Amino acid sequence: MDSQMSQMSREDFISKVLAEKESLRENFREKAEQVEAFYRSIKGLSLFELKEIFPAPRAVIEQSIYDATSEIISAQNIEECAFASISLFRPKTVRKSEPEIFKKDMELLQALFFFLIRELFGSDEKTELALNDGSWCEAEKQAEILNDFSTRFNFCKKQPFTIFDFTSFEGNHFEANESILRLFSNFTPDCTGGLSKEKIINEVNFVREQQKSLLQIFPNTRKNDYSESQAKKEIAGKFKNLESLKKLDFGFIVPDFTQFFFAGDDNLKNPFVRKITCKFFQESEMEWKDGKPRFRYNRRGIKIIARKSDRATNKSALRTKFLYPERNMITHISENFAVYNLFGKEYLDFQMPYWERLVLSSLFDAREYLKELGREEEKKEECEKLLRILNHYFQKICSKLELPCEGGDELWNAVFDENGDFKINAKMLGQTNLYNEALLNEDEITHLRKFLSFLYCTGNENEDFFEKNKSVIQIYLIYLTFEFAKMDKGENTEKI
């Protein structure tokens, strides 16, 4: 595409591609070679250019900020960055498409999608057979092929891809072809055959926008004039959505997640390898405090109180890596979200002893995880090292409790029962505040944060996670993108 574009104006190139598209409208099942050639001609086009070639039934007049990631990240100086940012808010319009023409375009996109699958994940006996028998452009066959790949990539659910017939996508929050065009824009390799991490992050951004628009999980806690029936309906709806999100975001297995011991360890040469699950949303492991949101009465009506269990989320982060928080660490240079749960400023201001309870319980859960992991013979020695470090911090944090024990298992058993519930009272919990009681100095707190980041599947990774696991992340994002696209029903359908 780039070489062709360089030899003619952008307008002439788009006109040429539109003419090629017209020639493929009919009987493209027998034109696999021409469809593949057309696929190669649109590789590398921007989302806006793809929308010119495949216009939606109604015009799109703006482009959201989450499309800017690659442009802004790749900017060489302040001026380029500013231009890329400002250009996002310039009005953009695209051609409209008549319903019958739009349906033909969606059928052609379905055919083109086969060649995207083949380029991303390779060709095998099933894809070649599909080309020979003419089923390559059918949604059912494409789902079958992707299900085979999902098994090879250790998806946690068998046969996750149901039929994704592009002509059935309705569109309400997004255009009916939005999800498809974004996949072509973000996942088609460039002229060198590579695919930038920024483009994958663009797709991560879009999936998050789909979820926020189509499967909201947090009730409106600002509204304080609900009726009782309205409050119950709002809570029940969001609770149901959270359960749906958990089923949707089942994740995939990373059998060889590799880290090196965090800075300061005396044996940096030995990698720490463990099996983890990777999911997209940290909310997929979220639990509500008290089981679900509740409500209380005030002078104007009813206000919903919704508090998530930070302990449950942090506990899940010991075994699970989440793609969207991982994206935040790349784009915002932010801290691991579970570590931020423990050391974020807003938690330091919470009513005592909430924060102290969270810190100590997270250490308890980490200890239980390491003890379980250490039962595997090849991980026993590494886990014992990590447990010694964890015990060191726990003993220092509990040093002012004056409990009748010296440390080790006795100290843990004095603070917690076997289920991880506290034996000590709120007054004693207040004595474990890292800052108010000066239990750890700044260097020790920094070291503790790095140590916990390591346990929470982010610190000192051996390789770039997105780069190493690019193929499985791509196929998982395709799955999520299409599942949300199916939810995006027309305006007459009740919104989720």
Concise synopsis of the structure shown:
The chain has 496 residues and is mostly helical.
Provide a descriptive summary of the structure in words.
The protein has helices at 2-6, 10-23, 32-42, 47-53, 69-73, 78-87, 99-121, 125-133, 139-152, 178-187, 197-214, 228-248, 310-317, 323-331, 337-343, 345-348, 354-373, 380-397, 408-415, 426-430, 442-455, 465-468, 470-487, and strands at residues 252-260, 271-279, 294-297, 302-305, 320-322. The protein is mainly alpha-helical. The protein folds into 2 domains: 2-215, no CATH class; 250-287 and 308-468, no CATH class. Helix 10 (178-187) packs antiparallel against helix 23 (470-487). Residues 59-70, 89-94 and 491-496 have low confidence and may be disordered.
